[in-house]
Design a protein that fits this description.
Distance between the termini: 84 Å
Helix content: 40-55%
Number of domains: 7
Structural class: alpha/beta
CATH superfamily of the largest domain: P-loop containing nucleotide triphosphate hydrolases
Number of helices: 37
Strand order of the largest sheet: 12-15-18-11-19
Radius of gyration: 36 Å
Largest sheet: 5 strands, parallel
CATH topology of the largest domain: Rossmann fold
Shape: elongated
């Protein structure tokens, strides 16, 4: 390595002003030494010019001209075919660094002209990183010369570590100041501590300084699970290997650990100051080798969630560097130049103004990032599009890149403003066409047809945007409200990529909130002290293998918080390494991509948001109409036109401005017991209608088109009440019933008796006439003197229609969730339904949720009922099926981030049909749970009671159980009481009193309920049917 460096120093001296030889020189050497050679040439030229400027008046101007010519030559190379990707990185890196070198020379020439500099010892020159080959010097490798890098008055020997072909940072005034501070810190045996907000280049600046000095930098992503022993291993490795360590997010480590780390750093510092070769590391009985060039740096995001304040004894060992927002315009200018744009000055200005205006004028969304990482991703894409379209207008190419790279993350209302800002900044550019991918488009349309969904333009655009985002980012976040088609977008794209690239694309899904953070990444066994690899870490090790012949998309499908996702920061940024608390470092290979599917990023820190590519799916990108159309296309041909007309008639046309008049009426005039999405409501409608058409009703449909239309409309009206109107209370049900009648003066609705609505009726499957729900007559058990009233089930109109709904959906294997206040017979209705099931075919597992229920407890409760069926498949014993009754589903604790981890594992088993293995020997594998169905019950959210996550609601058919009417209550308790008093045993006078007792008790209950209201002092005054 050193011989190559010496030869490059000799060869660059021969190049002189001959730019043809410059190309030969760059092609001959690897990127690292080609760059070092040009830096030595630049230093030599300026040093000579400053030494001779008093005697030669034009030498400063001539040297500045030469540097400009070198930059022009290097930039011209970027437009040509450079062969390999590594060669392109090499040339672009030379341009990136030499832009700064040219600017430095131009500044020095200006200062010389103003007579402010005339000596090589002036600070304006000394503050730069200067590169010298000193033939007579000795370094730690041998005595025949040394490469010395000087920053201010601190000299460093180049360390000749082979670092490969890496992109280098654009040097800005902030970078210069940081280099000076870090160089001074190293010169005084201190560590460096860059601190500042996300995306200011803290870690990358440390790494870049390491590359400048030929030193390998080990980046460690710190977590709150880190122990002082883990830190000790890293520090000892740095000392013995002569490396630099960069501890990213250092202030996430717990305070007790930081105090011990301070003693470890102090021991290294004292040993470096005394120049000792071996020293005693705290806690290690043996002396360890100290290589003097080792260094340690910490980066911090002060004020972010989950961060600590550093102890004073630790702060004193590091020199702080305040990393504020860098000069984005310089970075844009240099990067545009390095990828071949000739109009980089003007375009960088427009780019800079656009992002500044977006920050000020677009809405403030948590997932918006207009910072450095987003800028660099846009610039990378701009370079690619420039190479593919060399003859097109550069303004048009940048316009197209800025539009395509940013539209994906914008919420719907911000899109028009963003496009108008672009048009204002690029007035001469006609609206350029979107990227064209004919082969992919054909494959996508084939997959859309295969999945039986509708090719909706807004949704299809999001598929293309996801494709474009994954081209430039290895970490992607699909963000948007539930029901927007996020999962389907990814499934369709993955299958289409498999078709077009002939490389299989696979997916591995995990809900990070369904397990503890320690189970996700790994933990130390408190008894044995052994490290146990976590679920995600085991999957990471399995799939990040270059021998795999497929592309694996590792998907984290669950809520984001600042605890678990921060551990992936080094994966998401340019390091692409998963660092664990035990010191393991697992690099990310090119055959793996990391995907996050989330509803919101409200709990994500800017550090995370800036590292990932965002694709935002608004609720307007896919509303209910395309979902309904996809369902209609699966119905028999004779039904399709009728069903289409019915949806249009009752729900109205779906446009971005108007969601449909039925939804509009319900939103304005009623209030459901919980918020749900429009797509969820529409899905419930056609799921219930599907169940009716698969049953007796479907068998008795007429073949006469006119009669068929009437039959389907009656069924549709029944389903409309129990889907869009299923979560209404009694008063709102009356309003909805009246609106349906007034809206169309529909003769097909039932002719109701006073006080009744369409909810009290059903469509009889033989005659297709409306019939009132009538419960079977309940009989008091003969010979029973004492009954357990808590388990006594008396059929009522409410329970009969509830059982009808549950049965319809249970046959389709659809999860059902009953919502209702106390005393609305949610649990009783479920138990009545279970009593009617065949125990030889269906098992029942009841899980009662409480605030103490954890994901592990729920997983254990379900797993305990399952037997192994083969491989990784498990199911109920004896080939049976099992219905899991999820009672009080909303009770689990809401954590500090607003999530319910216990309900995340419920969603995971319903959606993915399985769990992650938690046993130490099988972590990373997925346990498939077969033949499970779900029925749930929960109270109304509000008043101190929890709601459930929207993404879990989406899995269930939801309907509200209202309190029984006074007539129903009279029937229930009247039957119990009259059944208890046998007419053959008791006198007629007694029986008359018995009949009045029920009504008297109900009147008393009503009086107490209305007059004795709960107060803070009497919070237990709750009078329900129990």
């Amino acid at each position: 390595m050193k011989d190559i460096c010496r030869q490059s120093a000799v060869d660059i001296g021969v190049v002189g002003n001959d730019l043809k030889r410059l190309r030969e020189f760059v092609d001959r050497y690897v990127a690292q030494f080609a760059l070092l050679g040009i830096q030595i040439m630049w230093t030599t030229d300026i040093q000579t010019a400053l030494e001779q400027c008093r005697a030669k008046k034009n030498i400063m101007k001539d040297t500045s001209t030469k540097q400009a010519m070198v930059l022009t030559e290097l930039s011209n190379w970027c437009l040509g075919d450079l062969g390999s990707k590594e060669n392109r990185i090499k040339i672009e890196t030379l341009v990136t660094i030499h832009v700064h070198q040219r600017d430095v020379m131009a500044d020095l020439a200006t200062l010389y002209k103003q007579k402010k500099i005339s000596d090589p010892n002036d600070f304006e020159w000394l503050k730069q990183a200067r590169f010298y080959w000193r033939p007579g010097n000795a370094d730690e490798f041998n005595a025949d010369g040394a490469c010395v890098i000087s920053i201010t008055d601190v000299d460093f020997n180049y360390q000749f570590e082979y670092l490969g072909s890496k992109e280098r940072l654009v040097v800005t005034p902030l970078t210069d100041r940081c280099y000076i501070t870090l160089a001074q810190a190293l010169g005084m045996y201190f560590g460096g501590a860059p601190a500042g907000p996300a995306g200011t280049g803290k870690t990358e600046t440390v790494k870049d300084l390491g590359r400048t000095l030929g030193i390998y930098v080990v980046v460690t992503n710190c977590t709150d699970q880190q122990k002082y022993t883990d830190c000790a291993k890293i520090f000892k490795g740095l000392c013995q290997g002569g490396l630099w360590g960069c501890f990213d997010e250092f202030n996430r480590i717990q305070l007790p650990v930081l105090s011990v780390v301070a003693q470890q750093v102090l021991a290294i510092q004292n040993a470096k100051k005394t120049g000792t070769k071996y020293f005693q590391f705290p806690g290690d009985p043996q002396n360890i080798l100290l290589t003097p060039v080792c260094g340690y740096f910490i980066t911090m995001n002060p004020g972010y969630a989950g961060r600590q304040e550093l102890p004073e004894n630790l702060k004193a060992l590091f020199r702080g560097v305040a990393m504020m927002v860098p000069d984005f315009e310089i970075i844009m200018k240099v990067k545009l130049c390095s990828v071949g744009y000739s109009e980089y000055q003007d375009l960088a200005k427009k780019f800079f103004i656009l992002y500044n205006t977006c920050k000020e004028q677009l809405s403030a969304q948590k997932h918006y990032d207009w910072g450095l990482r987003n800028i660099l991703a846009v610039l990378r894409s701009a370079g690619k599009i420039k190479r593919d379209n060399r003859n097109d207008s550069e303004a048009k190419l940048l316009y197209q890149t800025l539009r395509d790279m940013n539209l994906s993350k914008l919420v719907a209302q911000d899109v028009p403003l963003f496009l108008s800002l672009l048009a204002d900044l690029f007035p001469t550019v006609q609206f350029p066409p979107k990227g064209s991918y004919p082969e992919l488009t054909v494959a996508l349309q084939g997959e859309i047809e295969r999945h039986g969904i509708v090719d909706h333009p807004g949704w299809f655009n999001k598929v293309i945007q996801l494709y474009e985002t994954q081209l430039v980012r290895h970490g992607i976040m699909l963000v948007g409200p539930t029901g927007g088609g996020k999962t389907k977008i990814f499934d369709v794209l993955m299958q289409a990529l498999t078709t077009t690239t002939t490389i299989t694309h696979k997916q591995s899904k995990l809900n990070p909130k369904a397990i503890r953070a320690a189970e996700m990444y790994g933990e130390v066994d408190p008894m044995s002290g052994e490290w146990t690899t976590g679920v995600f870490a085991a999957m990471w090790a399995k799939y990040n293998n270059k021998a795999n012949k497929f592309i694996m998309w590792m998907t984290c499908d669950g809520p984001v918080d600042a605890i678990w996702i921060e551990d992936l920061n080094t994966v998401l940024d340019d390091n692409k390494i998963l660092t664990l608390a035990n010191g393991d470092r697992m690099p990310m290979t090119d055959n793996v991509k990391l995907m996050f599917e989330v509803e919101t990023l409200v709990n994500a820190s800017p550090a995370t948001v800036s590292r990932a590519g965002i694709v935002y799916i608004s609720d307007t990108d896919l509303d209910w109409a395309p979902v309904v159309e996809a369902w209609i296309r699966k119905r028999p041909q004779t039904h399709q036109a009728i069903l289409r007309d019915l949806f249009m008639k009752y729900m109205g046309e779906n446009t971005p401005i108007n969601p449909g008049h039925c939804f509009d009426y319900l939103n304005r005039n009623t209030e459901g017991v919980m918020p749900v999405s429009r797509i969820g409501q529409a899905s419930r409608l056609f799921n219930l209608l599907t169940g009716l058409l698969l049953g007796e009703h479907g068998n008795n449909l007429s073949e006469d088109p006119a009669k068929l239309a009437i039959q389907l409309e009656k069924l549709y009206l029944y389903c409309l009440c129990w889907s869009l109107g299923s979560l209404l209370e009694q008063d709102d049900r009356v309003k909805f019933d009246e609106w349906l009648r007034q809206y169309d003066d529909n003769a097909l609705l039932p002719k109701c008796e006073p006080g009744q609505t369409a909810y009290e009726y059903f469509v009889e499957p033989q005659s297709f006439e409306w019939k009132v729900w009538r419960p079977a007559k309940w009989e008091y058990p003969k010979g029973s003197k004492q009954l357990d009233f808590s388990n006594l089930l008396v059929p009522t109109m409410d329970s009969v229609r509830t059982l009808y709904l549950i049965e319809n959906l249970h046959k389709q294997r659809k999860p059902v969730l009953m919502v209702g206040g106390p005393g609305t017979a949610k649990t009783s209705s479920a138990l009545m339904f279970f009593n009617d099931l065949n125990p030889d075919q269906m098992m029942i597992k009841r899980v009662n949720f409480s605030s103490a229920t954890t994901p592990f407890m729920f997983q254990n409760a379900v797993e305990g009922e399952l037997d192994k069926r083969g491989g990784k498949s498990f199911g109920p014993p004896g080939g049976k099926k099992m219905t899991v009754f999820l009672d009080d589903l909303s009770m689990p604790l809401v954590n500090a981030w607003g999530d319910q981890p216990t309900l995340e594992i419920v969603r995971m088993i319903i959606e993915l049909s399985g769990f992650c293995f938690l046993s130490k020997d099988r972590r990373g594998d997925f346990k498939v749970c077969e033949d499970l169905q779900y029925v749930g019950a929960m109270g109304h959210p509000g008043g101190g009671r929890n709601d459930i996550p929207n993404r879990l609601k989406r899995q269930f058919y939801l309907f509200n159980l209202i309190l029984p009417s006074l007539t129903s209550i009279d029937d229930i308790y009247g039957q119990m009481l009259t059944g208890r008093f046998d007419p053959e045993t008791y006198s007629k006078e007694s029986l008359v009193i018995v009949n009045k007792l029920t009504r008297a008790t109900i009147d008393l209950w009503n009086f107490m309920k209305s007059k004795l209201l709960p107060t803070p002092a009497k919070f237990h005054y709750i009078f329900n049917m129990r």
